[in-house]
Amino acid sequence: MHSPVSILQQYWHYNEFRPLQEDIVRSVIDGTDTLALLPTGGGKSVCFQVPAMMRDGVCLVVTPLIALMRDQVDQLRRRGILAEAIHTGMSRSQIDVLLNNAIYGGIKFLYLSPERLRTELFIERVKQMKVGLIAVDEAHCISQWGYDFRPPYLQISLLRDIKPDVPVIALTASATDVVQQDIMDKLAFRGKRVFRKSFARDNLSFVVRKTENKEKKLLEILQKVKGSAIVYVRSRKTTQSIATLLNRRGVSASYYHAGLTFEQRTTRQDEWISNKTRVMVATNAFGMGIDKPDVRVVIHLDLPENLEAYYQEAGRAGRDGLRCFAVILYQDADISNIQTKVNQSLPSIDTLKKTYQALANYYQLATGSAQGESFSFDINDFAERFKFHPLETYNALKKLEEEGLIQFNESFYSPSLLFFNLDHHALYQFQVANAKFDEPVKTLLRLYGGELFAGFVKISESVIARALTIPEKEVVRTLKHLDELKVVSYQPVRDTPQLTFVMARQDAENLPLDVKRIEARKQLILSKLAAIVSYTTSTHQCRMLLIQDYFNEVSDRECKICDVCISKRKESNPAQYALIKEKIIQSLSTGALAVESLQDAINPRDEELFVDVVRDLVDEGMLQYDASWRLKLNH
User: Fold this and answer.
1) Spans of the chain below 50 pLDDT
2) 3-state class of 64 per DSSP?
């Protein structure tokens, strides 16, 4: 029998597990319900994928992130492992084919969003499935005390009722003790097997800088810290303006947000991953599931809304174990701005009802209809038609999503898909009887083969058009005609935001809203906001200890590399600080030097203190950067 390490070597080409991974893997192989807390980049997917390969049956993976779902499915396929995903925007026939393949052994990993668990189609099919493991990713979403609670996650307990003997592994990057307990209760854990890696990151320096000129400070940081970077901002418009600023100042940058097309997002992400672009300026739509080990700095120009989200985003730096930085740049106004924004994100019950009724009118849906159906959605058109404010509408949609009524995907993309409804014999008879379709059908079979009979296959209308030497529009018309004749199931490409009615259309005046929970969530969100504000404004306690304390991890070991620790060291060693300052001024008296050249010239014993002295002298105006980003004395 294969061992966990041999599976890891065969499919992932690693010779050994990272710390804690093997313990988690063996716990799952033994059939024990397991909760794994690993920080961002800690290798969570391996913890369920390796044991799933060693257990008979399908591994059901529940995750709310479509982008992450697709990324993992693609990675598994490249390793020769059968994997599929069921997500928002798929037709009933697509889901039907996938579930059939899972029942009859054609799939090893089946990824699905939690909303799918409540559908009758899925429930009936999963009863017939041989399931070896249930993996719940982003497991904090199941807890009402977590920062990203999603009621559809509560449906996961249905799987435990249907498959009571199948072990569960729940995975998350960040969870307090209360959230951990809630996860295990909601998933009906048999026993409490928890593996938790320390939240401390020895290579990650947390820094907060209060500044009246964030753009100038951003440029200084990118000059001092070489290598790949992520800059997080709150608005789509700001992503573009900051990227433009950086490019004008000679820093290669691109921008990313959910409003870009799929091709734009993919191209920009690929160029950044391959280091063709140094800096990615993005909203929080960027980063989830991206495996880039050499990010040297993550900078937040806007305050994040809570410490959980900040820790995950900051944790995208330094996955290679080398020195890296997580920086927050803020002004006093940012505190009041984030407080205002969070309060705006908590719409009233009346606003929720009005927005929901408007959605029903927008799509002309009768009460009781549209369960599981997806629609293209233009939020600006919707807001304009019903005289709503776009931001208020967005916040109401997210709250309706949190309540399990709808699902709103801003960055949805689905390529064109095709499946033959007829078997080989029936298809041949159709071709004989309908000569005008004979050549298109033959071309499809030549290009995409027998897989068209087994499941939905990604197709390219432009490739088919070239093969048939006809316009692409005619290919689309032909495929739609074949779809109407029930010969094929054809889904054209979609690249617009999608809105899905998770529950059948409700009477807006009697929406099934949990008012008490909504109020409790409001108070929780406000308390989490207070925690990130406290973290940002604190100047006396090690930042890593603040984070560990927030996650209920007891430690008294200061990190020695955050801005607070360095400041303390500077204050406790004024003689060394003064000596470095004197040497810097002396070295620059003969001319400007790059930071690296200045450091080589001085060769300080304490490199962190050197960086801090340089920063202080720049802040005080004694030093400045010239056009080539060399330091010089400011006479």
Assistant:
1) none
2) coil
